[in-house]
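Contributing: when you submit paired examples, paste them exactly as shown. First protein:
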Amino acid sequence: MAAATVRPLVTVQSLDGNMTTNQTTTLPLPDVTKAPVRPDVVNHVHAQISNNSRQPYAVSKLSGCTHRAGQVAFGNMCRGCRMFALTKIYRRWHRSVNLNLKRHAIVSAIAARLLFRLF
């Protein structure tokens, strides 16, 4: 059973930091703490967003094949030659993530942080 359903009220202290005074109030937990914990959504959103910080790299398509004139100089298996299907800079490096999916991941992460059984 989740901690949000066991303890629906939270005690809030005053801002001065003095614990001896009785200026405490009890407030209900926000609804974000009662959200379902979805680690698959959090992992998916994190993996997709972390792809957005990558820098494109590629191999020059003109590299290699400047020696061994007339011999098997263009084969993919030959030493010092071009590679087949070389990496391109127009590869799909970045990923877009739906805004509602990002919001669900944030809410799920906050709800998971407040569960006592995960500590």
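Second protein:
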Amino acid sequence: SRFDIYQFYRNDGNPLKKGHSKRKIKSSQLSALIAIPTVVAIVVAIGAWICHRWRKAMQTADKEIEEIIEAESLQFDLNTIKAATSNFSLDNKLGQGGFGEVYKGKLGSGQ
């Protein structure tokens, strides 16, 4: 025959409402959904802790450098020390230390 009789199109209402919209999550998927964010959070926390420690160490190093610079500014040349101690006079000798003899002296500024 020239014509077949069969249903070409079936209209059952809204095509988006087929089946149930609720999906069941498998236990392995649930484990992954919990484990992955947990691992990411731990890695981020460890990274933040390392960064904090590194910054603190850098600040300590900067402070030590500043202290060294301040200590270097307290150094005097030999001529200034000779003048302050009356050319290392025995009258100005206080004693002997682990690094050598110790003298008292007075700078021109009165210190």
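If you have annotations for the second protein, write them as plain sentences, like these:
Residues 27-73 form the longest helix (47 residues).
The mean pLDDT is 82.
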